Amino acid sequence: MVAQEALRVVRCGGSKLSGTRAAFSADAKSLFCASGDYVKVYSTATEECVHILQGHTNLVTGIQLNPQNHMQLYSCSLDGTIKLWDFTDGILIKTFVVGYKLFAFYTLAGSEDSVFIIIPKRNEEASDSFQLVSVKLPKIPDQEVEAKELSLILDDIGQSPKCTAFGREGEYVASVCGLHLLVYFFKKKKIHRFPLSATSSKGANNYFTCVACHPKEDCIASGHKDGKIRLWRNFNHKREYTFSTLHWHHDVVMDLAFSVEGTSLLSGGVESVLVQWRDGSDCKKEFLPRLGSTIEHIAASPNGTFFCTSHTDNKITIIHSNLRVSAIIQGLVKGTDVKTGLVVDPRTKALVLNGKPGHLQFYCLQTDKQLYNLDIVQQEYIHQIGLNQVDLVKAAFSARGSWLATVEQREDKETELELQMKLWSYDEQTQSFTLNTRINMPHESHVTALCFRDTDELEDVTPTLVTAGKDGRFKVWVLVNDSDAEKQSMGWSCDFVGSYHNYPANNCCFSEDGSLLAVSFEETVTVWDSDTWDLKCTFCHPPGRIRNLCFGRLSCSKYLLGTTSNGFLCCWNLLSCALFVFKPNEPRPLCIQRNICRGRVQWAVFIPREVPESVGSENHKWLSRSQLYFLTQTQDLMTFSTKSTEERLTPSSKQLAIEESLPVTPFYLLLGKHRNQQQSKENADLGTAVVPSHLAQHSPAIKELLHTPAHVLPSASFLCSIFINSLLIPKENKSAGEVADEVEMDSEKAEDESDEDIEVTEMEPDINPTEILGEITPKLSKSQEKELRKIRRMDYSWIAAL
């Protein structure tokens, strides 16, 4: 009996890349960043994700290179563990279980067996009091080790990793919290505290936001909420300390970082500008502007070649030391609200949703990478709190992706509502959308829905768009020819306006063949003929206001589905006008999955598969032709999968199987097809059966064994016998009849050789006239050939005597 497949919730992308400070490898060829509970390894040259280090069960909060081995990487997480990775091969080497939620992680070159972490006092994520402690990492050969030996360094410090930094050669550690700077000296085991007043006579806001330490000198740089940077010196004396002030930022200083040699200081904030201060002087500063969004983190490579900035729009920018952008790693843009919902681009099968303010982002689900941004609003975004700016609220594609409709609005308490609908046509030459028609105030109130007719792109059907609004109207827009003698042009214009008792129109949807249009007005659903725009029927008795409408597909195209504000799902049969109303928990649904994510599910969408997937269980047939994706409150993209852990190799194992991870190029397809044809032809000519490959040759364990570096494998004597046995082909048991046939064939072989000369002469008979006419002697079976040989060996000399 085949075991039933279990349905799993799998995170497929969208996690935040800028949650913690990124780190470079020693040669600056790789960049490490935390992405949810993963650690991603990117190439700084190609921007491609090389490895995904998977093993943590909660948010990764810190990553650092191992100072004792630059080919290894430490990571810490809220799951209470520290993991050591071989990032070149994507292999987990060891796990240290601390038992506390870890919010930051630091390493020092002089501390071989100790690292530093920030933990909450009461081991609670919502705690407001944190400690900096050192933890001793035991040198035990086990895969998982407990690290419980903790030593307190500083108490009552900030939670953020940006608020703590280690000084020159690890002689001291500086931490900021509120209005206090704390400096702990390891040799003296003393703490110096430097307070600031909350405000000054000039209205400055002196609260600390971040801190950085000079790598070569006794100098501490601190950032503040009023945009100032203070450079602290002579802080080994409590009363004789001094500080100088640098000021360019007009708002909060988000992060600070010194270059490797300490010759320059980097700062960033909400202005989206990276500022480089030379030699700590206010007069020697350089700028890299227009980086796109607020800078959250800054990091420098160990060899001084690159800097990198992490941004609030889920982007990492890699920058040369001469302040030129080298590469951009863009994840799913994190907006404040996904007003457009999740839309699928029919051309690229990309997920389309709100991106940067006023933009649509096209996001590839297969590569977890943004394809491109489309500027819809086409206005400069002003970073100012409380300023109402134009929002992109609706988007819809035509059936084949040739047209895109967007709606943008700006609403202010003091001014009237501003609405604008734009129609975009796809340009094959530029491979992008170009603006075709701009319509000001398509409705007198908010636009609630818009949809294209699915049969738009047939040659004999005019492309049609329908919009619904709170003004109690739905409008039909068609593509018309606006050409004149001077130029040819096509544009969109309103063809029909419909309403129903002046109720606000909430939703609209076309049937699969485009012959019917359904529009909901509060608690009433109306069905219209799309050719004459006549009202065909109304459904007036669902419980609650209609929230969504959708026609069925294929064999279910006669059904119209709707959800209500009271939690009911309604199904109308358009042929019989019958209504079926049920709660989601009453008729038996195909699938119920509880606790699929920590927060609330915001949006969900089905995306068609390029090739239907074979699903064994009848309960999961709904996943064969399309895949369901949903977006959580933290904007993590989740999906459902029926594949087991063995079938879904971990990302590290996928990277180890090098021959499977290489791209399938046209040359590979041509050469591989030729080799397969040649091999099958040889097998057919020889008449030999191809021996099926053994199961072990396709085992992920064997593939990983063949590609794993030797220094992390067990001894060869232990693996040799297991590996050899896995490659052996088992001997097949033959039946008694087959053995007897083989013996008989061997005995006949000698007799056949003696008759070989006679058979040679017999193989040259005269031409038979029947063969010329097309009557070919049928081929004999093996048993018939055997009987024929026996007849040939019989002695017929007695016939001659007659």
Automatic annotation (TrEMBL):
On the tree of life, the source organism's domain of life is: Eukaryota
Quick one: where's region Disordered?
A: 736-768
Give the record's keywords alphabetically: Nucleus, Repeat, Ribosome biogenesis, rRNA processing, Transcription, WD repeat
Q: What is its main location?
A: nucleus
Q: Where in the cell is it found?
A: Nucleus, Nucleolus
Skewed-composition ranges (Acidic residues)? 739-765
Any one Pfam family here would be: Beta-prop_WDR75_1st
**UniProt keyword Protein biosynthesis present:** no
The WD repeat-containing protein 75 second beta-propeller domain covers which part of the protein?
342-579
Gene3D superfamilies for the chain: YVTN repeat-like/Quinoprotein amine dehydrogenase
One GO molecular-function entry? RNA binding
Name of the protein described by the UniProt record: WD repeat domain 75
Membrane spanning stretches: none
Organism this protein belongs to: Pelusios castaneus (West African mud turtle)
A GO cellular component annotation here is:
small-subunit processome
- Write down the InterPro entries for this protein, in alphabetical order: Beta-prop_WDR75_2nd (IPR057644), WD40/YVTN_repeat-like_dom_sf (IPR015943), WD40_repeat_CS (IPR019775), WD40_repeat_dom_sf (IPR036322), WD40_rpt (IPR001680), WDR75 (IPR053826)
Q: Does the keyword rRNA processing apply?
A: yes
Gene Ontology biological process terms, A to Z: positive regulation of rRNA processing; positive regulation of transcription by RNA polymerase I; rRNA processing
Task: State the WD repeat positions.
Answer: 53-95
